[in-house]
Amino acid sequence: MNRNEKNEALTAWRQVLDSPEIRMAAADQYEELVRLADNYQRGGLIGEEERNALIFEATNRYACLVTGNRECSQFDDV
């Protein structure tokens, strides 16, 4: 696993989490984040534990958004 590739992948994942496309619905954002996490694990960039942590964070953000709390600040340090 190349550390630079991993850092780039995780930066891209974080960008989707923090700045989804303007018209991206919460469900679409969640699906994209899970897809990326799965691809990163399959590609050997991250392990299962890191994949699970990313999906946990994406799930928390999704729950926050669908309950109407658009700030999601309570999940920033998850």
Number of separate domains = 1
Count the DSSP helices.
Answer: 3
What gap, in angstroms, lies between the N and C termini? 25 Å
Mean of all residue-level pLDDT scores:
86
Structural class: mainly alpha
Q: Low-confidence parts, pLDDT < 50 over ≥5 residues?
A: none
Summed up:
By secondary structure, the chain is an all-alpha fold. Helix content is 67%, strand content 0%. The radius of gyration is 12 Å and the shape is elongated.
Task: List the topology elements.
Layout: H1 3-18, H2 26-42, H3 48-66
Describe the protein.
This protein starts with a helix and ends in a 12-residue tail after the last helix. Helix content is 67%, strand content 0%. The model has no long low-confidence stretch (mean pLDDT 86). The chain has one domain (3-12, 25-75). It has helices at 3-18, 26-42, 48-66. By secondary structure, it is mainly α.
